[in-house]
Design brief:
- The longest helix is centred in the N-terminal third of the chain and has 29 residues.
- The protein has a single domain, classed as Farnesyl Diphosphate Synthase.
- It is 71% helix and 0% strand.
- It has 296 residues and is mainly α.
- The mean pLDDT is 90.
- It starts with a helix and ends with a helix.
Length: 296
């Protein structure tokens, strides 16, 4: 069980949690609710959170399986991989990935039946994107497009989608607030790929970090960690949710991983940076959620 939990990569799970809580909070009060929950529907929030978590775990297992059978993870620096390390059989890891995707599909179907059929299309696209990130004959993650997938599905889609299942419409706030959320999710992948540049280069895995090179990847990471703090005060001010700007104070935590990246941390030294990036993302999301909800 410890191996399966490690293979699910808990440090990446804030990328699933944050867009759901932020998107849900952004929808608070938009349907005119005057109760303590401001019109939010609890079961839909829980369902959206389960879908996001299941998709994240499914992507992690699918990536583990596909990279493992290709030999990409044979000499990898970083958290343990189930397939590459030989801890689990490839078939078992593949089944775990499909089980997670299947769970997300079932719960997502319930949300679609309660709101709109187009969620089925979005969900199918998310599952397909999760599998073909490193799976299939031409994985797009090997072509440097992984960051785009993360920004779109764990940023825009997850945030705006979580708001949609509450109010059944897309608003300027739910779209705009998804941008900083997506940036933090993308930063997780960028620092992960920064650590893996040497190994990925050897096996021909041309991630965006490999294509940009070490220096420019570090600049991209810093941008993704700083830009949300610049954007959120403007977004919250324009949307008349000023309390959401309190998330600006989380920049004090962001200093830690940003400084390590700027100082040139490499290899195993970047593993703690991944954890710190997740903590910053989670803290930012929690404070932003509180501000958006109170102001809703």
């Amino acid at each position: 069980m410890k191996d399966w939990i490690a293979g699910a990569r808990p440090r990446t799970l804030p990328a699933a949690v944050v867009p759901v809580i932020v998107g849900t909070a952004a929808a608070a009060g938009m349907n005119g609710g005057t109760d303590a929950l401001k019109g939010l529907i609890v079961w839909r929030f829980v369902a959206a959170l389960l879908v996001a978590l299941a998709l994240q775990v499914g992507v992690n297992y699918a990536n583990d399986y596909s990279d493992g059978i290709r030999g990409t993870d044979d000499d990898r620096v970083g958290p343990m991989r189930l397939t590459g390390s030989g801890a689990k059989r490839p078939g078992a890891v593949k089944r775990a990935a499909f089980a997670a995707f299947g769970f997300a599909a079932v719960v997502g179907l319930a949300l679609a039946l309660a709101t709109s059929w187009w969620l089925i299309v979005v969900g199918a696209a998310a599952i397909a994107a999760g599998w073909f990130y490193t799976g299939g004959p031409r994985p797009y993650g090997y072509a440097g497009l992984g960051e785009a997938f993360v920004f779109v599905f764990f940023g825009v889609v997850a945030t705006a989608g979580s708001a949609f299942v509450q109010i059944e419409r897309i608003t300027p706030l739910t779209l705009l607030i998804s941008i900083p959320v997506g940036m933090f999710a993308t930063a997780l992948l960028v620092v992960n790929n920064l650590r893996d540049i040497p190994g990925d280069t050897e096996v021909g895995k041309n991630t965006l970090a490999v294509r940009l090179g070490d220096k420019r990847t570090r600049i991209l990471y810093v941008f993704l960690m700083v830009a949300p703090f610049v954007a959120v005060p403007f977004i919250c001010g324009l949307a008349d949710r000023p309390l959401g700007a309190a998330s600006l104070f989380v920049i004090l935590l962001a200093r830690i991983p940003v400084q390590k990246v700027l100082e040139g941390a490499r290899g195993a030294a970047l593993i703690p940076v991944l954890g710190w990036t997740g903590r910053v993302q989670l803290a930012f999301g929690v404070v932003l959620t509180a501000g958006l909800f109170i102001g809703g």
